[in-house]
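User: Hi! I have a protein structure encoded as tokens and I'd like to know what sequence might fold into it. I'm fairly new to this, so please keep things simple.
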């Protein structure tokens, strides 16, 4: 196809690949193919969740049969068991999930080298120029994943990342859906506005007060009205409602290119100070890893997931590389303040990038901390924790007291998670 001036025009093609009930699917596949299980967890009333003896145990993934009992991802294990006492509950196995995710990315790499791993169980693929028939190629990928890896995926196809992700969320599981810009009015506009990416609970309330209930109504609302009531965020989601999104697929960086951590909270976080304390806990863990590896970072991003695990993200670039807890925490708070609209949160994460091994620090006129003094102090803390244990020294704000929310002062670290599962202690049915 050619443009007005004869230049060749190639339609952009983006895939969004999303694993169906990833944690449960990967667990089911492992048990069937490696442990000799006779029944498929995906066909039973089952879920992956934390230890119900602990108050912070939550449902991480559920089977389709479990939906009949109104079991929700993110609710407590105790609550899920109350809804269905016969619920089969299996513990999370993060090592298994990482291996499964890597296997997925390896398979996808056979089709394009432009892959952005959006999360452990989903990825964007820039397929522009890589396939003559996008739908046929998507079905081929879906079939290969099922036959070679054992689990199913949904694949959304469009000209941009936004619409591709919206398409993959259509009917599940094991489906391929298109959402080209020409199909937006037919397929997307009738949907509830709550299903649009970046529309959280606070935004939903404002839209409802304006009489906006569908994506189509949002798309056709006067932008002046939206800006008056919702500022720039209103204009952004109106663009999304019209299928406008120019973000590019960012190639997945090698693991060494960034350091990150995340946590799932025991209950909805609705308080800004509590959320920032969780970010401080994550900053402590990440900065300690940076100093241990002798590296610094100059990019900080945060990820938020609400009660139904909708994803929100934002990042900032630092003026100078750092490995300090206080600077990483300050950057994550800036991201948080610019991103969060009051929506109840169940998951927070921090990721750092642009890693360097610079031994020097360029002093800035407006430095807010004495870098050398602060680093010596934080390195001393590292040494104490290494010798006497992680809990030997902690910030005062994490010391338990009446009325204060109990939380780990160094959250998300590998040493805090149960990375593997002892299957000899598990009942494999």
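Assistant: Happy to help. Inverse folding works backwards from shape to sequence: for each of the 429 positions I chose a residue that suits the local structure. Here it is:
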């Amino acid at each position: 196809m050619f443009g007005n001036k004869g230049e060749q025009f190639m339609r952009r093609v983006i895939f969004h690949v999303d694993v169906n009930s990833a944690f449960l699917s990967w667990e089911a596949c492992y048990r069937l193919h490696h442990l000799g299980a006779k029944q498929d967890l995906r066909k039973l009333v089952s879920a992956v969740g934390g230890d119900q003896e602990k108050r912070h145990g939550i449902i991480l993934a559920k089977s389709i049969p479990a939906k009949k009992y109104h079991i929700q991802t993110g609710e407590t294990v105790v609550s899920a068991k109350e809804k269905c006492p016969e619920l089969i509950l299996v513990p999370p196995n993060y090592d298994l999930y990482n291996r499964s995710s890597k296997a997925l990315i390896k398979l996808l790499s056979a089709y394009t080298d432009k892959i952005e791993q959006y999360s452990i169980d989903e990825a964007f693929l820039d397929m522009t120029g890589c396939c003559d028939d996008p739908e046929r190629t998507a079905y081929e990928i879906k079939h290969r994943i099922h036959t070679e890896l054992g689990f199913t995926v949904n694949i959304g196809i469009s000209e941009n990342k936004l619409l591709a992700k919206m398409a993959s969320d259509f009917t599940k599981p094991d489906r391929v859906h298109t959402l080209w810009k020409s199909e937006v009015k037919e397929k997307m506009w009738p949907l509830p506005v709550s299903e649009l990416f970046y529309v959280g609970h606070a935004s939903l309330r404002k839209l409802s007060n304006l009489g906006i209930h569908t994506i189509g109504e949002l798309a056709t609302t006067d932008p002046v009205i939206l800006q008056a009531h919702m500022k720039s965020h209103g204009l952004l989601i109106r663009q999304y409602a019209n299928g406008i999104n120019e973000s590019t697929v960012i190639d997945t960086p090698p693991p060494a290119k960034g350091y990150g951590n995340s946590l799932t909270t025991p209950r909805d976080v609705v308080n800004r100070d509590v959320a920032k304390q969780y970010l401080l806990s994550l900053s402590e863990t990440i900065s300690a890893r940076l100093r241990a590896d002798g590296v610094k970072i100059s990019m900080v991003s945060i990820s938020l997931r609400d009660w139904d695990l909708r994803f929100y993200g934002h990042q900032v670039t630092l003026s100078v590389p750092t490995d300090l807890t206080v600077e990483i925490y300050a950057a994550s708070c800036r991201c948080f303040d610019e991103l969060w609209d009051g929506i109840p949160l169940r998951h927070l994460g921090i990721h750092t990038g642009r890693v360097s091994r610079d031994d020097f620090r360029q002093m800035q006129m407006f430095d807010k901390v004495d870098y050398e003094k602060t680093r010596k102090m934080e390195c001393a803390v590292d040494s104490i924790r290494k010798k006497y244990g992680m809990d030997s020294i902690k910030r005062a704000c994490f010391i338990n007291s009446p009325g204060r929310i109990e939380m780990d002062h160094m959250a998300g670290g590998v040493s805090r998670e149960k990375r593997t599962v002892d299957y000899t202690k598990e009942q494999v049915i």
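A useful reference point when you look it over: The chain has four domains: 14-20+96-183, 26-92, 189-241, 257-416. Feel free to ask if any position seems puzzling.
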